[in-house]
Write a structure and sequence with these properties.
The complex is a heterodimer of chains A (109) and B (363).
Chain A: H1 2-7, H2 20-30, H3 38-52, H4 59-62, H5 69-75, H6 84-93
Chain B: H1 4-8, H2 19-27, E1 62-64, E2 71-73, E3 75-77, H3 79-82, H4 88-101, E4 105-106, H5 116-124, E5 133-138, H6 145-159, E6 164-169, H7 177-182, H8 187-196, E7 200-206, H9 211-218, E8 226-230, H10 241-244, H11 246-252, E9 255-259, H12 267-270, H13 276-284, E10 290-293, H14 298-308, H15 316-330, H16 337-340, H17 347-353
Parallel strand pairs in B: 3-4, 3-10, 4-5, 5-6, 6-7, 7-8, 8-9, 9-10
Antiparallel strand pairs in B: 1-2
Classes of the chains: A mainly alpha (109), B alpha/beta (363).
Chain lengths: 109, 363
């Protein structure tokens, strides 16, 4: 997957690295990197297409879970606690901005 | 509140909504003041809806269904909600009262509520079948023509009729759906076959997820008569079917069928962003043939019939004002959860694609 991403016409690929193991793994992939061929990329796209089609492996596109609460608040978007992805977003964020009594109604003032 | 059986349906992860509550909220005009956008509008002025007939003060108007030569009532009864009421008796009364009030468009799908929706609509239409324009949907979700034709026979039997006026491919919501439907031996061939056999008169497709997927279906240039999609005052400024798909349908002379005029579950009305009446009037003022409504009580039926009777489209200025009012709360899609979550994605379709059910997903 990393080789695919790096073979696109991008300047760099930003990687989440939270251990020395991951850092070393990524360095191994990068050192002497040669881009994949068009046909290799096409084959990988085709292999992924059936599982990609509902977007569940790209939750930043199909849920609110990756949306930073700090960016929702200036818009006035509510935190609807009946939505599982919203509660998980808030748990994950765990910031001082969390208002325990926030409801769709109160946050919409 | 929502009864136990309903919680067990595919809606189980939706917030509990008491529909009666938001009708009243709507009538009470509980509008909350929202900051209006100062941005200049980027939306072209609304296209004019097709000319209406049957437009007396106490009549439900009708509009032409694209190029088919048919006329349909400007509101339609949605099959999904019909199958969720507490008894078949109530479902039958809803259907009968709707027909007698002048509603002619009836929506359904093979898979709704384990087929109960079609069964109950069929009971309600006994003796009234020839007064309505009856639609159901085929739910192959990628399976072949043979499965489609089998489903058609089952739909006809449950609905108590020898033909459907309209048969649509249901829930085209996954990126690979257009490829699957147009594959050799796929459901599109079943549409042709069913028309040849005289079992369906017109054909179309539906979906609630993505304008891009709708456009991918249209790019095949298949002679669809209708296309169904969410159309509401929030959609207008968020991943918009109104902006991206509706003009293409007009260009092609394909009838647009609107749905989810209240955001799918009425949350915008509950939150007090819009009133039910203004949201429905907005949807009905778009260039659509009909707006399909979830009707699960006599109160909702009477409310919607009241709005439809003697209906006059709202002006382009009023529509634009409503879009602007809704824009700030539209921007993250939280009022159109059918676009932004998996909650509305049917279990049959997910299973056929090999996806876990929406309830099993961690998102």
């Amino acid at each position: 997957m990393l080789r695919y991403a790096m073979s696109l016409p991008v300047a760099t690929t930003i990687c989440g690295m939270d251990s020395l193991d991951v850092l070393h793994q990524n360095l191994r992939v990068v050192r002497g990197f040669q881009p994949m061929t068009q046909s290799e990329m096409e084959a990988l796209r085709a292999r992924c297409a059936p599982t990609a089609a509902d977007g569940r492996f790209e939750p930043y596109k199909v849920s609110l879970r990756y949306d930073n609460p700090m960016t929702r608040m200036p818009h006035g978007f509510p935190f609807d606690h009946t939505q599982r992805e919203v509660t998980e977003m808030l748990e994950k964020a765990d910031g001082p901005w969390l208002m325990p009594e926030t409801t769709p109604e109160t946050s919409r003032r | 509140m929502v009864d136990q059986r309903r919680q067990n349906e595919r809606s189980e992860v939706r917030p509990e909504i008491e529909r009666r509550g938001f009708i009243q909220a709507g009538l009470a005009s509980a509008g909350t003041v929202l900051a209006t956008s100062v941005l200049p509008s980027q939306i072209a002025s609304a296209a004019v809806p097709p000319q209406m007939t049957n437009s007396g003060a106490d009549q439900i108007p009708r509009r032409p269904l694209g190029k088919t030569g048919e006329q349909v009532s400007i509101i339609g009864v949605g099959g999904y909600h019909l199958g969720m009421v507490q008894s078949s008796d109530l479902a039958v009364r809803l259907v009968q009262n709707a027909v007698d009030a002048g509603v002619t468009f009836f929506d359904n799908a093979w898979e709704y509520n384990d087929h109960r929706s079609e069964e109950w609509m069929g009971l309600g239409l006994q003796g009234r079948r020839n007064k309505v324009f009856l639609m159901s949907k085929v739910c192959t979700h990628g399976r072949d023509k043979k499965v489609a034709m089998q489903q058609l026979e089952e739909s006809l039997k449950r609905l108590g009729t020898d033909h459907l006026d309209l048969w649509q491919i249901h829930e085209v919501i996954y990126e690979n759906d257009p490829d699957l439907h147009f594959a050799k031996g796929g459901v599109v061939e079943a549409l042709d076959e069913a028309k040849r056999q005289g079992k369906v008169r017109f054909v179309g497709f539906t979906g609630h997820k993505s304008p891009a997927i709708h456009l991918k279906m249209l790019a095949h240039d298949y002679p669809f008569d209708t296309v169904q999609m969410p159309l509401n005052c929030f959609d207008a400024t968020y991943r918009s079917f109104e902006q991206q798909v509706l003009p293409e349908l007009q260009r092609r002379g394909i009838a647009a069928l609107g749905m989810k005029s209240l955001g799918g579950d009425g949350q915008p009305i509950q939150y007090g962003v819009v009133r039910a009446e203004e949201a429905l009037r907005y949807a009905m003022s778009l260039p659509v043939a009909t707006t399909i409504c979830g009707i699960d009580s006599l109160d909702v039926l009477h409310q919607n019939v009241g709005i439809a009777r003697g209906f006059k489209p709202i002006s382009a200025q009023e529509m634009q004002a409503l879009r602007e009012r809704c824009r700030p709360s539209s921007g993250d899609g939280h009022l159109e959860l059918f676009k932004t979550t998996k909650k509305y994605d049917g279990s049959v379709g997910r299973e056929q694609h090999g996806y876990p059910s929406s309830a099993e997903l961690p998102i």
